[in-house]
Every structure is written in structure tokens, then in C-alpha cells.
Amino acid sequence: MKFVKAAQRLGFSLDEIGQLLALEDGAHFSEAAELALQRLDDVRARLADLTRIEAALSRLVDGYHAHQGTM
């Protein structure tokens, strides 16, 4: 159960978790690695999006504070 919850927090769907659990025997390592690679690409894309959003929000807050300081 801990594995399932941890995998969900990492963004894996229940179907993907089921696939990973089915591959857990080690005989299908390349399939498990391919699924992990796909998820890694998704995570990296989300991180890039979040980084852009963080930068935009930071500029907005900085601009607000600069404007407040001029009044």
C-alpha cells in the first residue's frame, strides 16, 4: 500500500502502478524502465512549467513590493 500511495504522489496513475507492480518480478526490467522514462519526461515538463510560473509570480510580487515602497 505504501508503494501505491508513494507512486500516486509522484504522478503515476493507478493503471501505471498496476503495470509497475506486474513488472516487479525483475524479468521485465526494460518495460519498467520505459514506463519510468516516460513518467520522468512528464515530471521534467511539469517542473519546467512550474519554474516558469514561479518566476512570473515572483516578478509580480516583487513589482507589487516595489510599487508599495514608492507610495
TrEMBL record:
<feature type="domain" description="HTH merR-type">
    <location>
        <begin position="1"/>
        <end position="23"/>
    </location>
</feature>
<dbReference type="GO" id="GO:0003677">
    <property type="term" value="F:DNA binding"/>
</dbReference>
<keyword id="KW-0805">Transcription regulation</keyword>
<dbReference type="InterPro" id="IPR000551">
    <property type="entry name" value="MerR-type_HTH_dom"/>
</dbReference>
<dbReference type="InterPro" id="IPR009061">
    <property type="entry name" value="DNA-bd_dom_put_sf"/>
</dbReference>
<dbReference type="Pfam" id="PF09278">
    <property type="entry name" value="MerR-DNA-bind"/>
</dbReference>
<dbReference type="InterPro" id="IPR015358">
    <property type="entry name" value="Tscrpt_reg_MerR_DNA-bd"/>
</dbReference>
<dbReference type="GO" id="GO:0006355">
    <property type="term" value="P:regulation of DNA-templated transcription"/>
</dbReference>
<protein>
    <submittedName>
        <fullName>MerR, DNA binding</fullName>
    </submittedName>
</protein>
<keyword id="KW-0804">Transcription</keyword>
